[in-house]
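Ticket 4471: requesting a sanity check on a complex prediction with copper (II) ion. Repro inputs:
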Amino acid sequence: MELEFGGFQIVVLIAFLVVAVALVAIFTVVALQARRNVEFELVTETGYRLRRYWLAFLALLLTTGVVVSLFFLPYPSSADSAATVRVSGGLFYWSMSPQTVPAGSEINFDVTSADVNHGFGIYDPDGVLIGSVQAMPGYHNELDLTLDKAGTYMIACLEFCGFKHHEMIREFEVTP
Ligand SMILES: [Cu+2]
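Returned structure tokens:
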């Protein structure tokens, strides 16, 4: 991998320098003012006033942050899913239905096991692991994924489950 000193690092450097200079300036001003003798009441009055503004600012910041971040929650509800794909792992196979899904649709994988614990791992056509969830007997674990790329996807078991664990691989098609 080639290391570059690019645009983003320069922005970070400039931001760091601005903050550093501001901090030094603030510390200098505070240190110089500490030499003067100031009435204690005056200091507390100013402090209380600043504290109220600070509290209002923090409350506003927090409220805005909470409200705005609600729109970016990474939890699509199952009701939005275009299709549910039922997956079951067993010694030593994967069964799934339906066997093909259209590209671009949001899939809700409902994953369980017929016997022991397995690891449901799903790889896109480029061989990149795009999601995984445990396949457990008696439980249904859900995994929401949007399969954008058409092609052959692969399911592999990611949890050692027995002497033919390595054979727990199957493919399925995502149609354009
Ligand atoms: Cu396995």
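Notes from triage: Strands lie at 83-90, 93-97, 100-102, 106-113, 118-123, 129-135, 141-146, 151-157, 169-175. Leaving this open until the requester confirms.
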